[in-house]
Each structure stands twice: as C-alpha cells, then as structure tokens.
Amino acid sequence: MAKVILNGSDLTLEDLVAVARDKAEVALSEDAKAQIIASRKLVDKFVEEERVVYGITTGFGKFSEVHIKEEETKTLQRNLIISHSCGVGNPLPIETARAAQVLRANALAKGFSGAKLETVETLIKMLNAEVTPIIPEKGSLGASGDLAPLSHMVQPMLGIGDCYYKGEVVASEKAMKDAGIPTIELTSKEGLALINGTQIMTAVGALTLYDAIQLAKIADIADAMTMEALGGIIDAYDLRVAKVRPHEGMFRTSENVGKLLENSKNVTRQGDVRVQDAYTLRCVPQVHSASKDCFNYVKTKVDIEMNAVTDNPIIFPDDEASISAGNFHGQPMALPFDFMKIGLAELANISERRLEKMVNPALNHGLPAFLTTHGGVNSGFMIVQYAAAALVSENKVLAHPASVDSIPSSANQEDHVSMGTIAARQAREIYENARKVLAMELLAAAQAIDIHKSKDKLSEGTRACYDIIRKHSDYIDLDRVMNLEIEKVDDLLEDGSIVKAVEEAIGNLRV
Predict the structure, then answer these.
(1) Which of 336, 398, 400, 454 is deepest in the core (most CB within 10 A)?
(2) Which member of 54, 164, 165, 466 is catalytic?
(3) Is 385 in contact with 352 (CB distance < 8 Å)?
(4) Inter-CA distances, 46 with 115, 148, 347, Å
(5) C-alpha 98: how far from its chain's center?
(6) pLDDT tens digit string along 351-397?
(7) What is this structure's pTM?
(8) Which of 44-48, 318-322, 344-348, 402-406 has the highest mean pLDDT?
(9) How many CB atoms lie within 10 A of CB 245?
C-alpha cells in the first residue's frame, strides 16, 4: 500500500479511507515541514514581543480579553485540553478517530497554525503506530470547531487518560511508551491549533460519503434485482430518456441499470405485459439520480475541507500577520452533510417501496403474499417490510436538518454555531439504516426470483448478485429467524462483496 504524504493541499477521499481503515503509512512532505517551522517562528516572535494575539497571549472565547504572561503559556495550553475534554456518549469508531488524526495533521501541514513540527510529527507517529484516541461522539456544537471531541484527540499526546493501542484500550502514557513515542508538552498556540477545527465532523461525514457513493451502486443493483423479480419494464431506462433531461446522475443510473439487466429474459418491454410500471420501478433513474448528484456535490465540499485551514487565529508567516476570523465554523460542511442525509434517506425510501411491491399480493404481479408459498402458518417476508418501514420512518426524523438550529455559547461570544457534527453523525445513522433496507430488498428479490424459478433467465450482472446472496443465505421455504438472514446480506453490502462481484462480472458501475 502506498504511503500517504501530507502537504496540506491534495489529500483525497481515497487517501483518507486508506489511512483510516487500511492503516496506510503517513508522512509529512519536506515542503510541509518547512511551512510548519516558518509559522512556528512567527508565533514565537509574537510571544517574545508580547503582542496581543488571540489564543497566543490571551485566553479563549469570552476570556479573550484576559492577557496571558509568557511563563503561563504552557499551563494555558494544557488547561485548554483538559477543560475542553467534555465529550460524552459512546466512543467514535477507531476508523473515525484515525480519520480525525490524519485530517488534523494535514491541516497543520499547511503551515498556518503555528504548531511545532515535533507536535505534528507526534500525531503522525501515533497514526503509524496505531495509537488512537478514545473520542466520545457527542459534545460538539460545530463552532468553534469540534472543540470538545478534538480535545479528547489530543489527550494521548500528553499522556492523559486512556486510548486504543493496536485496538486495545490502555493507559495513554503506557501506549505512547510502548509505541516508542515521547509525550509532548504544548506551548503557546499549540492546544488551540490542535482543537480549533472541523476535523471530527469532516471525519465522520467523509467516511460516510465514501460509503454513500458505494450505496448508490448497491441501490442500482437492488433495483435491477427487483426488476428481474417483477418483470419490470426496461424502456424507462432508455438512455434517450436521460439525454433529454440531462442530469448527470440520471444518465449514470440508466446506464448502470441497463448494463445490469443486459440480456435478461425476465424484464419486459412496454406493452408486453403492462403499459407502464409504478413509480418505484419507472422513476428509479430520476430518484437515484438526485441522490447521486447530491453525493457528488457533497464530495466537492469534502475535498475542499480536507485540505483547508480551519484554525483561529490564522498565522501568515509571509506577512508576519495573525488574523482572528471564523474558519473554524462548520457551516460550510453542516449544510452539505444535511443534504447528504436527504440523499441517503431517499435511497432507502424508494427501496422500501420496491420491497412492499414484491411482498404485497395486490401489487406483485402474481407472486404469493409475503413471498411464502405456505402462507398462514408461515409469515414469510411480512415483518421484513415492517422493519424496513420502521427504518425509513426513523430516517425521516434523522433527516431533519441539524444546521437550522443554533444556540449561543461562551457567554454569547460564540453566538451562532453550525451543529455540523450532529449532521454528520445523523448522516452516518441514516446510512446504516439505508444499507439495511437495501439488504432487505435484495433478500426479497432473491426469494421472488426463486419462487418464479427464473434464476436461469437472469442477466450476467444480476446473476452475480443472486449467486453471492445464495452462497450466504438459502431460499426461505419455511419461516426462520429473519434478522439473521438480513444480517448476512447486510454484511455483504458493508464489506463490498456484492458490488465487487457484480463489477467483476459486468465492469464498473458509475456514480
């Protein structure tokens, strides 16, 4: 696996995933080292000259009017970390904490934050040695940045509290010692440089975005499977339709489903059996398109944020200037993450309606009620649809925009906040729910295909999907514990097995 070199400018979503999930090695570029050293020299100069600079020679928030003496700067920075460590709730997953670490290191690598090179290198050494902070998931307002959770990110650097070391919870001081990484003592500006930013919301949101892009492919696969199960009318996916309403996502959805269903003997043409399908099949290009275009828009914002300076104050070495402004404010990410919530929820909404169409005898074109041939004694897929309905209803609550709320803090000095971290966490929850709904649809479609005895009529793409489902979950003749079957398919979605199998059969799907 290639080493990820941080310079503050070109970290990609794929790089972030490689570090967060695959533990790719990280290093600083030589230019980044020079940039970090230059900004640190300017901070030291401000301290020596006793200039009044927020967060360097003053307190924080409402205490910005309090002057801090040079001999008190180290105490100030340590107190900042321990007092701001107010996170609550379950710990963020290790991959999310690692994503936050690499994002913060990349922001510091730009050389506008004033941290010492030793401090940034400590963060990178921790990543490479798998020393990972335990970060509670709740407690951030999304401005001034993710202060509370990022303070927990810094604790192991100081040897405070517990952390993960190679996946196990140990005392931070011991983990750092065992990893051969000296703990550090923060000095002027460094605590603020480490915690005043949007790296928690961006870590949660960026990993969710990466998964959302894969989920959009899964949604197209699930639709194709349902088309096979219900003898759907393929004409609605004709590329000529997409070309006269040229939204990019619509063209890609029609192209994907067309490729997925190529040479299928189960799908029909308009007029063969029905003149047109219900919207859940006929309008998939339009609905999936909107979600895909949403995710691609969010990606443009995430790409910017991953390589941005989100600190305060910002140090400009070339001009010997320090500007106290608002780059820590999470609003530029809060709105996109709220948008992503809607895009994810809609993939689940239409999937649940396709599921209902398969299980409902009034809608499923001759399939048995609830996809069981022994109805009455057996309930078949009846409650699978209930569970899907519950998840999409939960998503509707979670999709309410977090960013429209604000509450003042720090004695009204920080009087408008983004709630962007809440938006990102809600997007993650919606993603998890949506993936499970799509797993239910795929399981039901495989069941319907077996009832029709039509697996030999499947296209190459849908056959690849069907085969991997049946490798892990058998046809359900008599009732069994259904959540276990749903989990089997959900696992195939989470680890990418179904997308991989399908793309190996027919080539890459486009989002």
Answers:
(1) 336
(2) 54
(3) yes
(4) 14, 27, 53
(5) 13
(6) 999 999 999 999 999 999 999 999 999 999 999 999 999 999 999 99
(7) 0.96
(8) 344-348
(9) 11
| CA distances, 252 to each of 152, 216, 419 (Å) | 42, 11, 33
- Dig out the tokens for 431 from the structure: 């993603």
Asked whether the beta carbons of 88 and 139 are under 8 A apart, the reply is yes
Beta strands 4-6; 26-28: pairing state: parallel
Question: Does 386 qualify as catalytic in the annotation?
Answer: no
* Backbone φ, ψ for residue 409 (5° rounding): -140, 175
Stretch (H or E) spanning 170: strand 168-171
Q: What is the DSSP letter of 41?
A: H
Alpha-carbon dihedral 486, 489, 495, 497, rounded to 10 degrees: 180
Separation of alpha carbons 330 and 403, rounded Å: 9
State yes or no: cis peptide before 332, omega within 30 of 0: no
Q: What is the DSSP string of 436-453?
A: HHHHHHHHHHHHHHHHHT
Radius of gyration of the chain (CA): 26
Q: Is 463 exposed, middle or buried (0-12, 13-18, 19+ CB in 10 A)?
A: buried
Collapsing DSSP to helix, strand or coil, 456 comes out as: helix
From CA 335, how far away is CA 80, in angstroms rounded? Answer: 29
- pLDDT(184) > 70: yes
Specify burial of residue 344 (Cβ count, 10 A radius: 0-12, 13-18, 19+): buried
| Terminal-residue alpha carbon distance, the chain | 25
* Of the candidates 288, 293, 396, the residue with the CA atom closest to the CA atom of residue 342: 396
How does DSSP classify residue 3? P
Please give the Cα distance from 7 to 32 (Å, whole number).
Answer: 5
Q: How many residues in total does the chain contain?
A: 511
Separation between Cα atoms, residue 471 and residue 463, nearest integer Å: 12
